[in-house]
Structures are given as structure tokens and as C-alpha cells.
């Protein structure tokens, strides 16, 4: 374990501004919505703020104040935040982000989980790793870093930190890594929480679907028809798309912003759910480490792992209404043989902790509180 301090050279920030100034923009889209992708006017507005008003040093200072570390696992540096609770009864939990997210997703829940205002509420020691090829973690130079291996690496990480028993949580790729932890029964993990459970319908379900099943099937069709092009590219040719993302801040921002719009619980604008600073803090964790290709390679490694799998250890689920691929409880119960908690949340989308931190914290406290008591 070695401490890690972010000190981005000013030359990197100057280079970003120079690239923005030299950008070649396409013409305006011939539609008045997001149906062809990120609208020109929306992206130009965000980039103008990025160029002239955004303060990276604020984000950098926040990350450094939380406590960042590096540790080498199987030849790869893993970057993580380790934020311990002052409470003696705190429970350790490893929380995993996804794409196009980062540890930035958890900034609004860290204080609430480690040091809650209510002394009777559960408290947690938080371990927040950056996926391989994401954030400031190392970039794998050989194949094999799929979700199963990442799940085992997180077990090694928790052991090195001295946690003999711990919980795991995740959404998006974090949900798949956390599922892999449960399926493999990684030593030390005593329960998991998912805000994107994965399950599949049976032929009987399809023959007579309930309203919840019809919603899930409709969302899956929309995803396949209109929302999955990024995943097909990243799971088949991540290197090709990486050239543009690593070279162009405009390209990287547009690539991510479209998914922020599509996957958050908003009324038509991404800024209904998240602020420009929140989104740019996250984009910077792709831009600064040049992660356009390395982050996409996880799709090449593990996109086939988005499949229903049985888990024997305790499982908790929080269902947010604007999840990209909602899963009815009926489907999930077939895979999660020890489902202790199923929470239906009123608001929120794919980025649960980022969008709805208070609801997310309540769900984790309920879920892991029940598991701890059990």
C-alpha cells in the first residue's frame, strides 16, 4: 500500500485548453432533440464552461483530502480511495463504479456513509477502487482482466487492508464485478448490494408478462434498438474508438455526456440530474489519464458476463425507476437464492449514488443493516 497524491501538471491543463481552442466542430444535427446523439449547442455550452470556468484543482483537492492509495495486484497498479469511519462499529464495504463513471460517482455519499448524523444509523469504512484501465488505476498490458479477475482482486485488496469480513456494492460494471464476487464467493465477502441486478425472463414469463415485465422488455428493446451502439463498438473494437477519445476532449466529452443524458432521471436535460461540475469532474478522470481505449477494453473482456447467474450469499437490490435495464423482482429471485432486501426507490436512474445520494444511503443502510443483523 502506498499513498497517492494527485498533482496534475499545469501543462496538462494548458494542453486541454489548447485542444479545445483548436477543435473542429461538426455542423448542427438536423433534429431538435438527442435522437442523433449529443446536440451541438449542449456540448458547446459545456465545453465553453470547461474551457473558461471549470476548476480542476477543486476536484483534485477533494480527492487528495479523502485519502488516495495505490497497491499492485497481479502486476497492475490499482488506485483506490480508503475512507474510514470514526465509528468503532463501522462495517467495511467495497463500492465499484462503472462506465462512463468513476469514483466521482460516490462523492456525495462518502460523508453520509462514513459518519452519519444519526448515531443509531449504520456506518461504513469505504474502499472505492478505480477499475483497471479507469481513473488512475493502471492499464492492463495483457488480456485477462475481466470481471471475475477484478472481483478476486477486490478480495485481495480488502484482505490487504485488514478486513476479514466485508460487503460489496456496485452498479453498471460495478454491479457485474459485485455479482462476480458473489458468484465466486470471494473469501471475506458476506453480502452484496446491487443497483443494477441482472436477470433474464423464462418462456413462461414472455408468454404472460406482468406490467413490471412489460416495462423491462420495453426497456431492453429500446436499449438494443437505440442505446447500445457504444457497447457494440467498445466490446468489438475498443482500440479504434480509443484514438479519437484520447486525442479529442470534445470527442471524450460528447461520448460521455450522451449517456449522462440517456441514463439519468431527468426531464430532458442532463443538468436536471447532475451539475456541470459533477459531470466534468468525471470526464476529467477519463481525459487526464487518457483512458478512452483502456476503459473500453473492459467491454471486450467481459461484455458477455452481463448474464443471469446464481448467487448463494446474501443479496440486496435497490431498484431505481430510470435504470437502463430494469429487472423485475420475479426474475431476480430465481438467481438470488438469499435475497434479503428489495427496495423500490421513487426517483433516480442508472447512476444511483451520484443522482440520488440520500436515497442511495438509505438503501445501503437498510440492506447491509439487515445482513449484519442476520
Automatic annotation (TrEMBL):
Q: Which keywords does UniProt give here?
A: Aromatic hydrocarbons catabolism, Hydrolase
| Source superkingdom | Bacteria
Which residue numbers delimit the Epoxide hydrolase N-terminal domain? 1-106
Which InterPro entries would you find in this protein's record?
Answer: AB_hydrolase_fold (IPR029058), Epox_hydrolase-like (IPR000639), Epoxide_hydro_N (IPR010497), Epoxide_hydrolase (IPR016292)
Q: Which SUPFAM superfamilies match?
A: alpha/beta-Hydrolases
> Which molecular function terms from Gene Ontology are attached?
epoxide hydrolase activity
Provide the transmembrane region boundaries: none
Residues of the active site: 172, 299, 350
Q: A GO biological process this protein is involved in? A: epoxide metabolic process
What family does the entry list?
Belongs to the peptidase S33 family.
Indicate what this protein is called per its UniProt record. Epoxide hydrolase
- Species in which this protein is naturally found: Novosphingobium ginsenosidimutans
Amino acid at each position: 500500500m502506498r499513498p497517492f497524491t494527485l498533482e496534475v501538471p499545469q501543462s496538462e491543463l494548458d494542453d486541454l485548453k489548447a485542444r479545445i481552442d483548436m477543435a473542429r466542430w461538426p455542423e448542427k444535427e438536423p433534429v431538435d432533440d438527442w435522437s442523433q446523439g449529443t446536440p451541438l449547442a449542449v456540448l458547446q455550452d459545456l465545453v465553453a464552461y470547461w474551457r473558461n470556468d471549470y476548476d480542476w484543482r477543486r476536484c483534485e483537492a477533494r480527492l487528495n483530502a479523502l485519502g488516495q492509495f495505490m497497491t499492485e495486484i497481479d502486476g497492475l497498479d490499482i488506485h483506490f480511495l480508503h475512507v474510514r469511519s470514526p465509528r468503532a462499529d463501522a462495517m467495511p464495504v467495497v463500492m465499484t463504479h462503472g462506465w462512463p463513471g468513476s469514483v466521482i460517482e460516490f462523492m456525495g455519499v462518502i460523508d453520509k456513509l462514513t459518519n452519519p448524523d444519526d448515531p443509531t444509523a449504520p456506518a461504513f469504512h469505504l474502499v472505492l477502487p478505480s477499475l483497471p484501465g479507469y481513473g488512475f488505476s493502471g492499464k492492463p498490458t495483457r488480456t485477462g482482466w475481466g470481471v471475475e479477475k477484478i472481483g478476486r482482486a477486490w478480495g485481495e485488496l480488502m484482505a490487504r487492508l485488514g478486513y476479514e469480513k466485508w460487503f460489496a456494492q456496485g452498479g453498471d460494471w460495478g454491479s457485474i464485478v459485485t455479482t462476480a464476487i458473489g458468484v465466486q464467493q470471494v473469501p471475506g465477502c458476506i453480502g452484496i448490494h446491487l443497483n443494477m441486478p441482472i436477470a433474464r425472463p423464462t418462456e413462461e414469463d414472455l408468454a404472460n408478462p406482468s406490467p413490471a415485465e412489460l416495462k423491462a422488455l420495453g426497456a431492453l428493446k429500446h436499449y438494443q434498438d437505440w442505446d447500445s451502439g457504444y457497447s457494440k463498438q467498445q466490446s468489438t473494437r475498443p482500440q479504434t474508438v480509443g484514438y479519437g477519445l484520447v486525442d479529442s476532449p470534445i470527442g471524450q466529452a460528447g461520448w460521455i455526456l450522451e449517456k449522462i443524458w440517456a441514463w439519468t432521471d431527468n426531464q430532458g436535460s442532463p443538468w436536471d440530474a447532475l451539475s456541470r461540475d459533477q459531470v466534468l469532474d468525471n470526464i476529467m478522470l477519463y481525459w487526464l489519464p487518457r483512458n478512452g481505449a483502456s476503459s473500453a477494453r473492459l467491454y471486450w473482456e467481459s461484455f458477455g458476463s452481463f448474464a443471469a447467474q446464481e448467487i448463494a450469499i446474501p443479496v440486496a437490490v435497490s431498484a431505481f425507476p430510470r435504470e437502463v435495464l430494469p429487472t423485475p423482482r420475479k426474475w431476480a429471485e430465481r438467481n438470488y437464492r438469499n435475497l434479503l432486501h428489495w427496495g423500490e426507490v421513487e426517483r433516480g436512474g442508472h447512476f444511483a449514488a451520484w443522482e440520488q445520494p440520500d436515497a442511495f444511503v438509505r438503501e445501503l443502510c437498510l440492506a447491509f443493516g439487515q445482513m449484519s443483523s442476520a
